[in-house]
Design a protein that fits this description.
mainly beta, 5-stranded antiparallel sheet, 50% strand, disordered N terminus
């Protein structure tokens, strides 16, 4: 056996060396991308980043180049970083790494200047498995960094799955908003409704579990469907939960010799606001907003909520693009503009993502070989900037998935 000792020693060394070379080599050859200015000034795109996915790695492309926090990390470090892809989560990992272990659902966090909290659900990342009705509440004091955790049981049924939308904390009371879904056969989901859990952090107990809204109802040939509008500032204090509610007329239609229910047309659409702490509902009622929601938007409408403002953008290739901003607390339309962007869309391709930020409309365009970004000034309707994503080495861009826009403050 002694004659094999040298071979046994060399084999692991060769494997490690070859693996290191392969990882290093591929890392050196990984292409870099940049947002190349085509029209306008590069300074107008300062802070603009296009979120892309390349071979499973998330990166941000700007006029300065492409950035990915995981490319230079070890394999294990890359796995860790990919779990915390949101900027808020990256910051929390740096500041409270021990507390963050195993916690990566950005919607399940709450943070203020005194407390950091997290609500964990079992089997959250594996929806093919049954999910228990147990929630794990983790709390850390920001001043002394002392941590505690406990479990509470909800009334969720065995064939249901809950997805956390928001967590809020005030005066030792926690509010957890969840979307409850039913699974008949994976991966088919049927939305049941939205529940609010009220948890006493002092006594470590569930005080109340109630359904605040059904996801879908049907009455007198009218089907009402409601969707939660996710906020951009996901982990901080917020007093409201915002929902988009649509009423559609339904008819019986024969499809392949079977009678099925089909939507015939939009009857009504409204934005409903739930006050998390007093449990009351109200509707954002203004004629400009209601007319906007009732428009025929063949390309759909993007709705975003951040800093007490609701931003709506209806993109169209056949008519003017409509943008509206509403102050939720005051129930007041603070911006309402029509933008003639048909020629721009014809030139740069279909809009697959839009974002309203302050006085600007940011558009991510597809339909051309290279993803493109456009910035439009809302007050004047002028196009301030147009740029395309390309490789720094000028080679063919190949396949790259551009899926969002982020504005660095």
């Amino acid at each position: 056996m002694k004659r094999y000792w040298l071979l046994a020693t060399l084999i692991p060394f060769c494997v490690i060396a070859m693996g290191t070379y392969y990882v290093s080599g591929t890392g050196d050859q990984k292409p870099e991308y940049v947002l190349k200015t085509m029209k306008g000034s590069e300074s107008d795109a300062a802070g603009l980043q296009i979120k892309v996915n390349m071979d499973g790695i998330t990166a941000a492309v700007s006029t300065k180049g492409s950035e990915s926090d995981v490319e230079q990390l070890s394999y294990l470090g890359r796995l860790d970083a990919e779990s915390y892809y949101e900027d808020d989560l990256k910051r929390l990992v740096k500041e409270h790494r021990s507390f963050m272990r195993g916690k990566n659902d950005v919607n399940a966090f709450y943070e203020d200047d005194q407390v950091l909290a997290y609500v964990g659900t079992e089997a959250h990342n594996d929806v093919s498995k049954k999910q228990s009705n147990q929630l794990t509440i983790s709390i850390m004091g920001k001043l002394d960094e002392e941590t505690s955790s406990f479990q509470v049981l909800t009334g969720k049924k065995n064939d249901e799955y809950i997805n956390i939308h928001d967590v809020q904390v005030k005066d030792q009371i926690m509010k957890v908003l969840v979307n409850r879904m039913r699974t008949d056969k994976y991966p088919q989901f049927y939305h049941v409704g939205y529940d609010m859990y009220t948890i006493d952090l002092s006594n470590k107990s569930l005080l109340k579990s109630e359904q605040i809204l059904a996801a879908e109802t049907q009455s007198n040939e009218i089907r009402t469907t409601t969707w939660f509008i996710s906020g951009n500032a996901q982990i901080g204090p917020s007093g409201y939960a915002i929902f988009d509610s649509s009423e559609n007329k339904i008819i019986d239609k024969v499809v392949e010799r079977q009678t099925v229910k089909r939507n015939e047309g939009l009857v009504n659409r409204e934005i409903r606001v739930y006050d998390i702490w007093n449990g009351q509902w109200r509707t954002l009622q203004s004629e400009p907003l209601h007319s906007f929601l009732m428009e025929d938007n063949s390309m759909g409408m993007s709705i975003q909520y951040a800093n007490q403002e609701l931003s709506l953008a209806a993109i169209s290739e056949s008519k003017d693009t409509h943008v509206m901003v509403v102050n939720v607390a005051e129930n007041r339309v603070i911006r309402d503009v029509q933008l003639p962007l048909q020629a721009l869309q014809k030139e740069w391709g279909r809009v697959n993502y839009s974002l309203v930020e302050k006085d600007r409309l940011y558009l991510l365009m597809s339909g051309r070989p290279k993803p493109a970004a456009v910035i439009v000034e809302l007050q004047t309707g002028n196009t301030l900037y147009q740029g395309e994503v390309e490789r720094k080495d000028q080679n063919s861009i190949g396949y790259i998935n551009a899926n969002g826009i982020k504005i660095q403050k």
